[in-house]
Design goal:
The complex is a heterodimer of chains A (83) and B (1264). Chain A has one helix at 24-33, and strands at 18-21, 43-45, 61-68, 72-81. Chain A is mainly beta. The model of chain A is unreliable at 1-7 (pLDDT under 50). Mean pLDDT of chain B is 88; it is low at 960-967. In chain B, strands 9-17-10-16-15-18 form a 6-stranded mixed barrel. Chain B has a 4-stranded antiparallel sheet with strand order 11-14-12-13, with helices on one face. Chain B folds into 7 domains: 27-74 and 218-305, RNA polymerase II, clamp domain (DNA Excision Repair, Uvrb, Chain A); 88-208, no CATH class; 325-483, Barwin-like endoglucanases, CATH 2.40.40.20; 504-639, RNA polymerase Rpb1, domain 3 (Enzyme I, Chain A, domain 2, Orthogonal Bundle), CATH 1.10.274.100; 645-785, Topoisomerase I, Chain A, domain 4 (Orthogonal Bundle), CATH 1.10.132.30; 832-938, no CATH class; 955-1157, no CATH class. Helix content of chain B is 39%, strand content 15%. Chain B contains 44 helices and 44 strands. The chains are: A mainly beta (83), B alpha+beta (1264). Chains A and B meet through strand 2, strand 3 and strand 4 of A and helix 4, helix 30, strand 43, helix 39 and helix 40 of B.
Chain lengths: 83, 1264
């Protein structure tokens, strides 16, 4: 199958925090740190507008850097699933 | 000692009984419709057969030989003469008929397609968690359209399903009824593999079992008969229904054997189907309900389980308890805050079990001698061999007391110092049940301190409360550690005190601490004694007329911690426009200022009380509050404080000026009306003349009331009781004063003046279209002087609305609360700091993103660094630390802190003048406080969150719309908006947008208007004056040049709009009109169709945006819209794409993704609550939002969202849609794992949340 990377513009908006794909090794660390299965992590659809431009595929882990009213900055993770 | 093994339920599997199983579990086939014979003996093979279990005590069960107490009951069965459909599975039967082949029974998809689905299912990759769930839907959607079986090639016929139980196939030869027997045959051909693809578990539920051949007869214990006083036996509803089934079954069997015509047999089959259907569910739509002889509808199986009073919610989730009592409450300010007054009569009935030991044997013996009737006594004694002795009938209590030895158990009366749980419904938050210490008192009511009313939301107008007595040491320990009143001083909703002084305590504090108060040594000593002061008395502060006097401030200071420093602005100072920060406490001494609500009040964060609670602990805060309240109470009692009719008297002069003021306002109103008539009224944008006039009048009248009120208010001096109460915050407001002494003002219904009722007038006493404000509900009188009869009536109309509003609101917010609790109850904090559901799904990686418990926080912050610095700076002296030192210290200590807190600490240190050592001390204290404020593992964060959002719901206004000034924008607010948000609705009732502009355009109004025109949705219909339709040839659109200009459109724009539909008509421009020449001569209907279509065409702008307003915010222009269409607005040039806001959260989820939706949801929830002046910590709002967004899409809080997708069958069944949930669980072979809250309440097991998360193990000594 030919996969052509189509760049779709990731919408920029004040509500959208930074999304990035987590590296394999980091994913393992994350799962180990929280002693958890990927499906127990909060989910995000592969079609989610905030990540379609990143070239994600189901099974990826997304790291989200949120602005936080309580902590200033906080990290959240979401697991990419098929819709 | 024997070791008792305890068994825990591991899980509950749900399944469908096969006919074989039904017969296997049956102890008797039931054939006789009679229940008892003439002698009153149960008939063999009848519904009350002795083999089905026993009812009467003493009687032995014919199956198991046990007596009524131990026999669980046994099932019987009825062999049905003809199979019938099971109503609970009727939808599944329909879907299976639709999707499977009528001849070979396979799913009507090709093997390849099926394999494809099977592959996805078997792959079980983690990322298919969502997609797997959609497989059955997809298969059904595909298969039901297929008309030819891909496996056997047979043609499939259309299926008609007539609810509730009739299936008809449309064949070439005509309509053919599918009988249960045929359906059964077809279903038995369906392969197990196909069933699995559809989500069924063929082991627990084969489809042919949905058709009943044998019907289980429940044991008699399920349907006990009752004997009325008359001696007549009355059977249970289920028994009645079974009798019907057996009768029809018998008749059917006989007529089948006798060879009756098939039509009549079919009628009987239908009747049998009807009876079995109503046996399972008597509320099926489409068939008549089965009734009892008395006319009451029968309560059959479904009705028993369903609803609030059903088995799940009524008997299993809510259980009745022993050791509880309920009576009316009344206040007693002489009690301790943490005490409850219990009437002796109740104390004598409620008992606490106490095991006799050598340390308490003497005391207990005395109690035993007192017996059950003399307080304090004992009701029962349990001997070590398990025999229970009731002391009521014991003559010689002395001998019994002498016989008591160590190891006996005594059930003694409740007495002073015992800990009990006290509760008032509705239990909306955790402070609705608190632990109090018992104080046995005479009388018949529970007594509580008035200051604990706010958490219970109690008053004394007849409220009743409940009292529960914990029976085990563990329960008492938990109650004392977690539930006592002083542990609940700080609300987990906002991290401020919820308990504090109120009403007369506030007034008393004011009177005591005001500057003029003088106390003699006697008075001073008395008060000090009352407050429990143990130290030496200070010396009098004031010398007047050669006499020494104490001040009230000195009394207050006695109870402050000696190292306490604080500065605050009192309510009194705010109300009298006095200096700010007037209350000064230095080293535990009230130097100046007045103590009122802002210092010791309930629900006042950052008060003196709050500070003491935070800095010195809850116990000390409680003692402080106790002392202050008892002395203020005593002081105000001696001082004498009253409020009455005479306190509201106004001088004639002021009365005149008030009525003159109102008359002037009336004149201005008449002026507005005449202006409007002449058409010279100044119009505000977007409002019609009538609307504008109404706004002006309402404003004018409101002003009139305010002026009247404040005139009256001002005429009272500062010694006026009403004035004191209003300004100190004890009770009432200046508005209330104004209404009592000045004028009541405008009465309103739904936020508008009262104008309906009669034709063109509100009441029959006025002329039609009367312009006098009196006729529209303006009340000139005040409460003191009394209202005129018409005014009184208007007032009652407004008052009625208030009552209706409250009634509706409690219902709505109650339901919202239930849904929130259900969605969040199982979330708890794990040891790794994550918030998870019991199946390990992470909702938050760190609770509240900083791991701070709101109840342990300082008004939402881990600790108050400024306060730490401030108190340190008083004792600190020396050289100020250098910048480098500061940054070194703050870096060293804030390592574990989150960025925001670290910055706060650093900033505070930089701003302070502390020495290096002082800073070290502050930081150490800060780290300590930070660690103490962290949430504890096991904490039921979900429940606390649900309560924090649900509880304020009751206090919200129901008013749906609110007129945001003259901004001509209606926005849903308050409770309806909150419900809308947690419902995750597809579209809000009032979608609106706030569109910010980019750098280039935001400064100029003209640019903003230009962009606004591009956004505003302009249809052809909004540009024309009229249309002329010639039904055979043409449609003429007469354009409105004014509107064209207003919307910034040209005629050519309309032409371009019409361009794509040129096939249907020619377009011709003629001056200010456009003529559409129809190409072919159509009928009138099509012409109208074309015309309407043309009128609805978009010329310009964004669809759904119905209104735009350009508003100036600070120095930039912002476009506000009614109607929202995010994706298309983003296409418009000149806007700031990063800062387009909408209240349409669902739209944000679609265009910006789930994370953006989560942020939007937080913002919306927060602003909705803030708008109503309700303080809710962000952490609660974040948890709800994170939960709603945790699955990648917005889930509703309710049966279609989180509550409906819970893993636990019992929890879903207990929430809503009970019976279908259970039926479905059986089909899919669900197993109840009992990990959540509701499930464990239902089975009566330990709840795995909070203190239930941990187990205690004891090491047993090894045998030597």
């Amino acid at each position: 199958m030919v996969t052509k990377k189509i760049r779709i513009n990731v919408p920029e908006h004040l509500y959208i925090p930074k999304h990035e794909i987590l590296k394999k090794k980091e994913v393992e660390e994350l799962l180990k740190k929280f002693n958890t299965k990927p499906s127990q992590i909060p989910l995000i659809f592969e079609t989610d507008p905030a990540i379609v431009g990143l070239g994600v595929k189901p099974g990826d882990m997304i790291k989200i850097t949120r602005k936080s009213p309580t902590a200033g900055k906080s990290i959240f993770y979401r697991y990419v699933v098929e819709e | 000692m024997s070791v008792q093994t305890m068994r825990m339920i591991d899980g509950i599997r749900f399944s469908v009984w096969s006919p074989t199983e039904i017969r296997k579990y049956s102890v008797a086939e039931i054939t006789a419709p009679e229940t008892y014979d003439e002698d009153g003996m149960s008939v063999q093979g009848g519904l009350m057969d002795g083999r089905l279990g026993t009812l009467e005590p003493g009687q032995k069960c014919l199956t198991c030989g046990n007596t009524a107490a131990r026999c669980p009951g046994h099932f019987g069965h009825i062999e049905l003469a003809e199979p019938v459909l099971h109503i609970a599975f009727i939808d599944n039967i329909y879907k299976l008929l639709l999707t499977t082949c009528r001849s070979c029974g396979r799913l009507k998809l090709t093997q390849e397609e099926l394999n494809e689905f099977k592959k996805i299912m078997e792959k079980e990759a983690a990322y298919t968690v969502v997609s797997v769930k959609h497989i059955p839907e997809k298969i059904i959607e595909k298969a039901k359209r297929i008309t030819k079986c891909p496996h056997c090639g047979k043609t499939q016929y259309e299926l008609i399903f007539t609810k509730p139980t009739i299936f008809i196939e449309k064949t070439e030869v005509g309509e053919n009824r599918l009988l249960p027997i045929t359906i059964r045959e077809r279903f038995s051909q369906i392969t197990d593999d196909d069933m699995r693809l559809l989500g069924y578990d063929p082991v627990t539920a084969r489809p042919e079992w949905f058709i009943l051949q044998a019907l289980p007869v429940p044991p008699v214990t399920v349907r006990p008969s009752i004997i009325l006083e008359t001696g007549i036996r009355s059977e249970d509803d289920l028994t009645h229904k079974m009798v019907d089934i057996i009768r029809v079954n018998q008749r059917l069997k006989e007529s089948k054997e006798a060879g009756t015509p098939p039509l009549i047999v079919q009628d009987l089959v239908d009747l049998l189907q009807y009876h079995t259907t109503t046996y399972f569910d008597n509320e099926v739509s489409g068939i008549p309900q089965a009734h009892h002889r008395s006319g009451r509808p029968l309560k059959t199986l479904t009705q028993r389980l369903k609803g609030k009073e059903g088995r799940f919610r009524g008997s299993l989730s809510g259980k009745r308890v022993d050791f509880s009592s309920r009576t009316v409450i009344s206040p007693d300010p002489n009690l301790d805050l943490s005490e409850v007054g219990v009437p002796e009569s109740i104390a004598k009935r409620l008992t606490i079990p106490e095991i006799v030991t050598e340390w308490n044997i003497k005391r207990l013996k005395e109690l035993v001698i007192n017996g059950p009737d003399k307080f304090p006594g004992v009701n029962y004694i349990v001997r070590p061999d398990g025999i229970k002795i009731r002391l009521d009938f014991v003559e010689d209590k002395k001998t019994i007391a002498d016989n008591i030895e160590v190891g006996y158990l005594v059930e003694r009366h409740l007495y002073n110092g015992d800990i009990v749980m006290f509760n008032r419904q509705p239990s909306l938050h955790k402070m609705s049940i608190m632990a109090h210490y018992v104080r046995v008192l005479p009388g018949k009511t529970f007594r509580l301190h008035p200051s604990v009313c706010p958490p219970y939301n109690a008053d004394f107008d007849g409220d009743e409360m409940n009292l529960h007595v914990p029976q085990s040491e563990e329960a008492r320990a938990e109650a004392t550690l977690l539930m006592r009143v002083q542990e609940q001083l700080i609300s987990p909703r906002y991290g401020g005190p919820i308990i504090g002084g109120l009403r007369d305590f506030i007034t008393g504090a004011y009177l005591l601490t005001k500057d003029e108060t003088r106390l003699t040594a006697d008075e001073f000593a008395n008060l000090a004694m009352l407050g429990g002061y143990k130290g030496t008395l200070p010396s009098p502060a004031i010398k007047e007329n050669k006499k020494n006097f104490y001040t009230g401030k000195q009394v207050f200071s006695l109870f402050l911690p000696k190292d306490f420093n604080y500065v605050i602005t009192s309510k009194w100072s705010k109300g009298t426009k006095g200096p700010v920060k007037d209350v000064v406490i230095k080293n535990g001494e009230l130097i100046k200022g007045i103590i009122d609500k802002s210092s010791i009040g309930a629900e006042e964060p950052e008060s003196v009380l709050h500070r003491i609670a935070k800095d010195y602990g809850n116990e000390q805060a409680k003692n402080f509050l106790n002392s202050i309240m008892i002395i203020t109470k005593q002081f105000i009692t001696n001082y004498g404080f009253s409020y009455g009719y005479s306190d509201l008297e106004l001088p004639e002069k002021i009365k005149d000026s008030i009525s003159k003021g109102i008359q002037e306002s009336y004149d201005r109103v008449y002026d507005f009306i005449s202006q409007a008539k002449k058409g010279v009224l100044h119009l505000t944008r977007g409002l019609s003349t009538e609307e504008a006039l109404e706004v002006y009048i309402v404003n004018e009248l409101a002003k009139a009331r305010d002026v009247a009120g404040s005139t009256a208010d001002k005429s009272f001096d500062q010694t006026n009781s009403g004035r004191i109460m209003a300004t100190t915050g004890a009770r009432g407001s200046s508005l209330n004063l104004g209404q009592m002494a000045g004028a009541l003002g405008q009465q309103s219904i739904r936020g508008k003046r009262i104008h309906k009722g009669y034709n063109s007038r509100a009441l029959a006493h006025f002329l039609q279209n009367d312009t006098n404000p009196d006729s529209m509900g303006f009340v000139k009188s005040n409460y003191r002087d009394g209202l005129s009869s018409l005014e009184f009536f208007f007032h009652a109309m407004g008052g009625r609305e208030g009552l209706v509003d409250t009634a509706v609101r409690t219902q709505q917010s109650g339901y919202m609360q239930r849904r929130l609790i259900n969605a969040l109850e199982h979330l708890k904090l794990e040891y790794d700091g994550t918030v998870r559901d019991p199946h390990g799904h992470i909702i938050q990686f760190l609770y509240g993103e900083d791991g701070i418990d709101v109840q342990k926080s300082d008004h939402g912050e881990a600790f108050n660094i400024e306060r730490l610095v401030e108190s340190e700076s008083i004792v600190d002296s020396g050289k100020k630390a250098t910048k480098d030192e500061i940054s070194e210290i703050s870096k060293r200590y804030t390592k574990t802190f989150n960025p925001r807190l670290a910055k706060m600490v650093q900033d505070a240190l930089l701003a302070s003048k502390l020495t290096k050592e002082g800073m070290e001390k502050v930081c150490k204290k800060g780290v300590d406080l930070y660690n103490k404020a962290k949430v504890e593992p096991g904490e039921a964060v979900g429940i606390v969150t649900a309560q924090s959002i649900g509880e304020p719901g009751t206090q919200m206004t129901l008013r749906t719309f609110h007129f945001a000034g003259i901004r001509e924008r209606n926005v849903t607010l308050g409770l309806p908006r909150l419900i809308e948000l947690v419902d995750a609705r597809k579209k809000p009732v009032t979608p609106t947008m706030d569109i910010y502009l980019d750098e280039k355009h935001k400064r100029s109004k003209e640019d903003a208007i230009k962009i606004a025109r591009e956004i505003l949705h302009t249809k052809i219909s909004s540009l024309i004056l009229s249309t002329e339709t010639d039904y055979s040839t043409k449609i003429k659109l007469n354009l409105n040049p004014g509107k064209l200009k207003e919307r910034g459109c040209k005629i050519s724009d309309i032409e371009t709009t019409l361009e794509p539909s040129k096939k249907k008509f020619g377009v011709e421009v003629e001056g200010n009109s456009i003529i559409l020449n129809l190409l072919e001569e159509p009928d009138a209907q099509t012409v109208i169709g074309i015309r309407n279509k043309v009128l609805g065409m978009t010329v310009k702008g964004v669809p759904d945006v119905e209104r735009v307003t350009v508003v100036q915010q600070d120095d930039e222009w912002v476009i506000q819209t009614t109607g929202s269409n995010l994706s298309q607005v983003l296409e418009i040039e000149g806007i700031d794409k990063k800062n387009v806001r909408t209240n349409h959260v669902f739209e944000i989820a679609q265009t910006f993704g789930i994370e953006a939706a989560r942020n939007a949801l937080i913002n919306e929830l927060q602003s909705t609550l803030e708008d109503q002046g309700l303080e809710v910590d962000v952490r609660s709002i974040m948890l709800v939002s994170d939960l709603m967004c945790s699955k990648g899409y917005m889930q509703q809080i309710g049966r279609h969202g989180i509550a409906g997708t819970k893993d636990s069958v019992l929890a879903r069944a207990a929430f809503e849609i009970t019976v279908p949930t259970i039926a479905n669980a059986a089909l899919t072979g669900d197993v109840e794992r009992l990990k959540g809250v509701t499930e464990n309440v239902i089975v009566g097991a330990n709840i795995p949340v909070g203190s239930g998360t941990v187990d205690l193990y004891m090491k047993i000594a090894k045998k030597s």
